[in-house]
Amino acid sequence: MAQAFIRIRKVCVAALLTVTLATGGQAEELAVVGTGDGIEMLQALATAYNAEPGETRIAVPPSIGSGGAVAAVGGERQKLGRVARPLTEAEKAQGLVEVPLVRIPSAIFVHRDAGVTGLTSDQVAGIFSGRIENWNAVGGPDLRIRVVRREETDSTLAVLRASMPGWRDLVLTTRSKTATTTQDAVETVRQTPGAIGFGPFSPALAGTMTVLAIDGHAPRDPGYPSAVTLALIYKAATRDAASAAFLAFATSERAGRLLAERGGAPLKP
Question: Which ranges carry the PBP domain (predicted)?
Fold first, then answer.
């Protein structure tokens, strides 16, 4: 009688465990919040990570900017962030740590109606300053140039100012649309004839737009003048096993191959 009871109890426990795993044992979600730069790359890493068995599922939500990542992780509302600019000394003093992942070229892209495939750096500066207003001035059709810019705190704009010839003190034309995220900039240029914008390079950009060569160099050429570094950030006080596991994966050789396939140059941690 006792043995039969033990067998029945084992069966019930096993059944309960099966139901728990099937319904209530869902993986915990760990969001990596922040910049829109390189978002497709990080989504690819998340997909690969989530395909393996584990207790944590990685999510890469829409952009809230590098500053949003610093505020969320620094304020201990999130455990992992993504940034496209270096942390300041003040941010590091708050306990924030950055882990550089990949170098991403800063692409200049145009609507296909612009009719050009390359510009000189002087022509690019002329367009974004408003000095050049029609595509026919640079070899394109008689079509008004529509500039799509980013806010001054944008990481790609900061990189362009630091590295692209003629951009350090460039005053961007007031006759322009300000995009609030990378995705907004891409979609605006994609949908607007005559439009030009900038953002982190991704091979996917070439699908429906033209990514310009600058001074004869394509974005992935060694001589291309401008790139941004995408990094993950965490706060030492809130780093846990789940965030440490994803950080280890994101800096692995496998992750490096995924990043390279999507147009980036992986960096060793």
Answer: 25-253
| Residue of 148, 150, 155 whose CA lies nearest to 197 | 148
C-alpha 214/C-alpha 128 separation (Å) is: 14
Which residues are CB-contacts of 117 (< 8 A; sequence separation ≥ 6)? 210, 212, 213
Residues forming CATH 3.40.190.10 domain(s) in the chain: 2-104+229-266, 105-214
Please give the CATH topology (third level) of the domain spanning 2-104+229-266.
D-Maltodextrin-Binding Protein; domain 2 (3.40.190)
Q: For the domain bounded by 105-214, which CATH number is listed?
A: 3.40.190.10
- For the entire predicted model, the pTM comes to 0.68
Q: Could you tell me if 141 and 116 are in contact, meaning their C-beta atoms sit under 8 angstroms apart? A: no
Of 200, 206, 145, 154, the closest CA to residue 179 belongs to: 154
